[in-house]
Design a protein that fits this description.
The complex is a heterodimer. Chain A is mainly beta. Chain A has one domain: Immunoglobulin-like. Chain A has no helices and 8 strands. Chain A has a 5-stranded mixed sheet with strand order 2-8-7-4-5, with no helix packed on it. A 3-stranded antiparallel sheet of chain A has the order 1-3-6, with no helix packed on it. The mean pLDDT of chain A is about 95. The N terminus of chain B is likely disordered. The chains are: A mainly beta, B mainly alpha. The interface between A and B is medium-sized, with 14 and 14 residues.
Chain lengths: ~110, ~270
């Protein structure tokens, strides 16, 4: 099942600014809503998103209950060297998703 | 004095006649000319349009990818996947959603894409049907419909489907609900105006199943129709009800020639 989708250029020139777009499939249940019977729906959200470029953390987000479902996170970085870019989403109820892509820098 | 008294009822009668004539004319001529039809896409803000246009930011693609996995997964006691019969959906499903709802000879009436997928599941895969609005059915429908993106809606009306088209049109023009409103009053007569701050679109179902930001998820055309029914305080039909499929058929016919956008994004 597609739990996260990551998009970035497969190759870039050294020093070029590249845009990275990520989407994670998640309901982002706030914890403030109630069922029709009045019972509180427990919170179930992604808490943290981390992006690492060749092992070094380059971008991090803390997410909160007000963030919409299926959070779309887009950011930019400088293409410094070829290698891997790893993405990790961590959340409530043991939610953990990782994606890894490679980039070629010339 | 007597002249004035005599003239008043005449004026009133003339006014009533005018109003009646207006309504008669509105019923027949209110349809939007083909060249003036606009997708809901044109009523959206720039950011929402960009979100739809880029597969990397279109959240509907999460369902499409799920649908692709389901397409290739074996299901049911027949142990067959969709791909075992239909092969690569990119080729075999191209243009299919542009033709739905389509006439089903076995049932003797039009069925929509969700019902067609479920018929395949129960009859060919020997699997239980998927519930309407379930994630799996939406994902499969979105994946199949995605293969028609950019193709014009092509609803063929013949003697078999015409009665159902007429029934759908009748629903579209019929006043109903506690607010006593018909679909046509907003979507033919007042499109482009504002309702609670939001533009009223022309109700062309070009992008279903679509991701609605308000829903925070993907939904079918029937889910959207239920919203409108509740909005005019009419009791919505059940999912898959023949009345809803007839209305879907009419709406798709009304949008004939317009391009499929699935999975669309709407506010």
């Amino acid at each position: 099942m597609a739990r996260a989708v990551v998009s970035l250029p497969a190759q870039a020139k050294r020093g070029e600014i590249i845009e990275i777009k990520t989407m994670a499939a998640h309901a982002m249940e706030t914890g403030f809503r109630r069922t029709q019977l009045g019972e509180l729906i427990p919170r179930d959200i992604i808490r943290r998103f981390v992006c690492a470029y060749n092992g070094a953390e380059i971008f991090r987000v803390d997410l909160h209950p007000a963030v919409a479902a299926n959070p779309l996170i887009a950011f930019t970085t400088v293409a410094t060297e070829s290698g891997t870019i790893a993405f990790q989403w961590v959340g409530d109820n043991g939610y953990a998703v990782t994606e890894t892509t490679s980039i070629r820098v010339e | 004095m007597s002249v004035r008294f005599g003239a008043r009822p005449c004026l009133a009668l003339a006014a009533v006649a005018c109003i009646l004539l207006d309504f008669a004319a509105a019923g027949a001529a209110a349809e939007i000319p083909l060249a003036e039809r606009r997708s809901g896409y044109d009523f959206m803000g720039r950011e929402t349009r960009m979100m739809q246009d880029d597969d990397a930011t279109n959240p509907g693609m999460l369902w499409v990818f799920d649908g692709e996995a389901l397409w290739n997964r074996k299901a049911g006691s027949a142990g067959r996947a969709c791909s075992d019969c239909h092969g690569d959906a990119r080729a075999s499903m191209k243009g299919v959603s542009a033709r739905y709802p389509a006439f089903d000879a076995a049932r003797g009436r039009p069925v929509n894409l969700e019902q067609r997928i479920n018929a395949c599941r129960t009859e060919r895969q020997k699997a239980p049907p998927l519930a309407f609005e379930s994630r799996d059915l939406l994902a499969l429908t979105a994946y199949v419909a995605r293969q028609s993106r950019g193709l014009p809606i092509d609803i063929a009306i013949d003697e078999r489907t015409r009665p159902f088209l007429d029934a759908g049109r009748e629903t579209f023009y019929r006043r109903q609900g506690q607010l006593n409103l018909a679909c046509t009053l907003c979507h033919n007569d007042n499109w482009g105006a504002k309702l609670a701050g939001n533009p009223i679109p022309q109700a062309h179902p070009t992008g279903y199943p679509l991701y609605r930001l308000e829903w925070q998820g993907l939904g079918s055309l029937q889910r959207r129709l239920r919203n409108c029914f509740v909005g005019i305080r009419a009791e919505p039909y059940a999912y898959g009800a023949p009345e809803f499929v007839d209305l879907e058929l009419y709406l798709m016919w009304r949008a004939r020639g317009m391009k499929i956008e699935t999975p669309a994004v709407r506010p």
